[in-house]
Amino acid sequence: MEEIKKGDDYMNMSLSVSPEKYFDSRFDGQEKLFTEKFNGLKTQFDERFNSLENKFDERINSLEIKFDARLSNAETRIDILDTKIDAMDKRLKWSTNLTFGVLGLLVAMVGTLLAMTAIHHF
C-alpha cells in the first residue's frame, strides 16, 4: 500500500512539476529500455551471424581443399596419359619409318630382280 502511495506521490509530484517533464522522463525511460533490448538483440544476431559466417568459411575452405586435391589428381592422370601417348606416338613413327624402309628395300630388290631378268632375256 505504501508503494502505491509512493507511486501516486511521485506521479503527483511529477505532474505538479510539469506534465511535459513527466512524460519526457517516461519516454526517456522507454527509449532506454528499447535501446537496451535492441542492442541485446543486435549482439545476439551479430554472434549468430559471425558463427554462421565462420562455419560457411570453414566449409568453403574444406571444399576448396577437396577441389584442389581432385584437380591435382586429374592433372597427374592427364600428364601420365600424355606421356603414354607420346611414347605410343614415338613407337608408331619408328614402326612407320621401319615399314617404309623395308618396303623401299623390297621395291629396290624387286626392281633389281626385274632389271636382272630383263638383262638375261635380252
Automatic annotation (TrEMBL):
Domain of life: Bacteria
Annotated TM spans: 98-119
UniProt KW Membrane keyword: yes
Keywords recorded for this protein, A-Z: Membrane, Transmembrane, Transmembrane helix
Protein name: DUF1640 domain-containing protein
Provenance organism: Candidatus Acidulodesulfobacterium ferriphilum
